[in-house]
Amino acid sequence: MFQYYCMNPIAKVGLDLFRENFKETKEIEAAEGVLVRSASMHDMEFSDRLLAVSRAGAGVNNIPLEKCAEKGIVVFNTPGANANGVKELVIAGMLLASRDIVGGIEWVKSQADNENIAKDAEKIKKKFAGTEVENKKLGIIGLGAIGVKVANVAKHMGMEVYGYDPYVSVDAAWNLSRDVKHVLNVDEIYAECDIITIHVPLMDATKGMIGSEALEKMKDGVILLNFARDLLVDEKAVLASIKAGKVRKYVSDFANSTTVGQEGCIVIPHLGASTEESEDNCAKMAIKEMMEYLENGNIKNSVNYPKCDMGVCDKAGRIAIFHKNKANMIVKFSTVIGSKGINIPEMTSKSKGDIAYSMMDVESPVTEELIEELKKIDGVFRVRIVK
């Protein structure tokens, strides 16, 4: 029996997927798995029972990934599950910025008692006139699940699309329209594009990447969209660029005191993935990932451990070892297991940076004595009996 704990409300359609060998607990210390959305886990102390954290969403900046890795806690996310919801809001944001729809709506609301509103509207509508997006150049920084969807829709809208992503995956490349111009230097997007949207994860290397230097390279009157993470953009520099006439509109899905109410800013209250469909999709993916890992030891869509899949174990036992990625570790594991007279008919070992994960199916039942000896090997974080 596995126990799971929900740090945030998780869609019922996802929770209903749990099989009979899973039970919800109200005590996080008793859980082998934790489901989370936006709650911060950075200041938490983790129980030795905790094996997995599954984030119902793509971003994981609310989870201490390195700390979890060193404790042998696998952190999952749900890439692509909310991509369609975010894509639709990005397109909406682009249209709101291109044409002063918000300003027009606000003017109409202010005229609720005006009996001549129809005539007055005809007189004032030029004030809210904007530009069409057809034939405009759209620059997309980051061609992940969301960036690819935005690119493909934009092509159908008649836009000229530039995409930048030095780490674009094979799956993303296959799904990307062949008409998208894949540039090798982000400066080309800054120099050429009328509208720029950013879709990269928040890391030390990307924090504040849209700052004064990048803004100076952009075309006058550029529209900038941020539906990824607020800290990717130096918003004070953006406000200065709006005042200088460099940036025409800044659309952000992250409400904060820097941009709310500022001229040239359209701020949305983090609605990107806030659709019933996105929340359902994220919940279902997060729970499937957790069940597959807890039951079989297989890892898919982890952000701190490598992908690893050995299917369902049909041998007497399965051992999972979390360890540093360094030489001779497999030899040491095999030596300890072999010294107990236990044969290893199947095994796999995968690495991700400095972290590695090994699984071994064995032909004899796994004992606690064996596990304790494996734990003593230098570089091992954790050893788990999967079966």
Question: Overview of this structure, please?
Answer:
- The protein has 387 residues and is an alpha/beta fold.
- Helices cover 32% and strands 20% of the residues.
- The chain has a seven-stranded parallel sheet, with helices on both faces.
Brief overview:
This protein has 387 residues and is an alpha/beta fold. The chain contains 13 helices and 16 strands.
Write the SSE topology.
Blueprint: E1 2-6, H1 12-15, E2 22-24, E3 33-36, E4 52-55, H2 65-70, E5 74-76, H3 83-98, H4 101-110, H5 117-124, E6 137-141, H6 145-156, E7 160-164, H7 170-175, E8 181-183, H8 186-192, E9 195-198, H9 212-217, E10 222-226, H10 235-243, E11 247-252, E12 265-267, H11 276-296, E13 317-324, H12 329-339, E14 346-352, E15 355-362, H13 368-375, E16 380-385
Parallel strand pairs: 1-2, 1-3, 3-4, 4-5, 6-7, 6-9, 7-8, 9-10, 10-11, 11-12
Antiparallel strand pairs: 13-15, 13-16, 14-15
Helix pairs in contact: 3-6
Overall pLDDT confidence: 95
* Biggest β-sheet description: 7 strands, parallel
Question: How much helical structure, as a percent, in the residues?
Answer: 25-40%
What is the tally of beta strands?
A: 16
Radius of gyration: 25 Å
**Shape from CA axes?**
elongated
Protein structure class: alpha/beta
Structure annotation, total helices: 13
The end-to-end distance, rounded to whole angstroms, is 13 Å
Q: Order of strands side by side in the largest beta sheet?
A: 8-7-6-9-10-11-12
Low-confidence stretches: none
Estimate the strand proportion.
15-25%
Q: What is the H-and-E element order?
A: EHEEEHEHHHEHEHEHEHEHEEHEHEEHE
